[in-house]
Write a structure and sequence with these properties.
327 residues; alpha/beta; eight-stranded parallel beta sheet; two-stranded antiparallel ribbon; 10 strands
């Protein structure tokens, strides 16, 4: 699989990575054996980038990755984690002592002395403008606890503030065919600054897979049930902030645009891969079959100008008004 440089360090990541939120919690139940099988299928398909966080299953996702890589020492996998959501979301909690404690816990969970990439996990907006926060992150780099740092953001404005910071290696942002605003300013700014872009929620929480109907029922412990209106965290993380009923209707139209040989999910991933400035896209997977199919999107032909225009038109007609003024 093709790899691209992520951030300013020269480290490389596969263009399709693996998001491991599903392997921790918030998407229903996944047993340990199945989680390890997903990781195995991903790497056997060419994936060299795993994204996790210290709050996914309260560390379970990090520990699962560590167990997998411990049994596969020959693998060269870039592992990024995130920190900051284990405390009340106030700027005052984003300080060096907390960073050290969170980082120490993640290093234990991951079984490493130094983490490849640590990202602030969608912190309060003022954090991105606080010099002391980035001084503290620089300290962790100097202490060789982390190789580099980045941010995971909710809004384009937060992304642009972070990109202006000289030490920021990467920005993780929601980008998909139902969330196109980052194309306007964020991706060009990141490309000019040499900042990596990690595209998350690429399937709009599964909407773009075309598998769901208005009658689909998700488990009670799945965020697509309990966070549909932003009850537990930012609404944009669930179905990209798109109203579910109208999103299902738009997804039917999106699926019809898939060229021969593409699934709707692969169309969604291929669209992201082709956007200038994207480093890697990180779909999740709940089964080995999903992991393989996601990785296969990297080898599919480029989408035609006609297909790209049709996706843009769908977004403009059905989705843009719902999401673009919020994030």
């Amino acid at each position: 699989m093709d790899e691209r440089v992520i951030g300013r360090s020269g480290q490389r990541a596969s263009v399709v990575g693996l998001g491991t939120w599903q392997l921790g919690a918030d998407w229903g139940d996944v047993d340990d054996k199945e989680a390890l099988a997903v990781l195995d299928a991903a790497v056997e398909s060419g994936v060299t980038f795993f994204d996790t966080a210290d709050v996914y299953g309260d560390g379970r996702s990090e520990q699962t990755i560590a167990a997998f890589l411990r049994d596969r020492p020959e693998l060269d996998v870039f592992v990024a984690t995130k920190m900051g959501r284990r405390v009340d979301q106030i700027p005052e909690n984003y300080v060096l002592d907390n960073f050290r404690a969170w980082n120490d816990r993640s290093r234990r969970n991951l079984g490493v002395d130094r983490i490849d990439l640590v990202q602030l996990h969608c912190p309060p907006t003022p954090v991105y403008s606080t010099d002391e926060v980035f001084d503290a992150l620089d300290t962790l780099v100097e202490e060789e606890c982390i190789a580099q740092y980045g941010v995971s953001v909710e809004t384009c404005a937060e992304a642009l503030t972070a990109i202006a910071r000289p030490g920021v290696a990467s920005v993780q942002i929601i980008l998909n065919a139902f969330r196109m605003k980052p194309l306007l300013e964020v991706l060009p700014a990141a490309e000019e600054a040499g900042v990596g872009i990690i595209a998350r929620v690429p399937l709009a929480s599964g909407l773009l897979s075309g598998k769901y109907t208005k009658d689909t029922v998700f488990p009670a412990n799945d965020h697509r049930t309990y966070n549909r209106h932003g009850e537990s965290f930012d609404q944009g993380e669930t179905f990209s902030g798109v109203d579910y009923a109208s999103g299902v209707e738009a997804a039917v139209e999106f699926a019809a645009l898939a060229p021969e040989g593409f699934t709707p999910a692969q169309l969604a991933l291929r669209w992201i891969i082709q956007q200038p400035g994207v480093t890697t896209v990180i779909p999740g997977a709940r089964s080995p079959e999903q992991a393989r199919a996601n990785a296969d999107a990297a080898a599919l032909p480029e989408l035609s100008d006609e297909t790209l225009a049709a996706i843009q038109d769908l977004y403009a007609r059905r989705i843009k008004e719902q999401v673009e003024n919020r994030w």
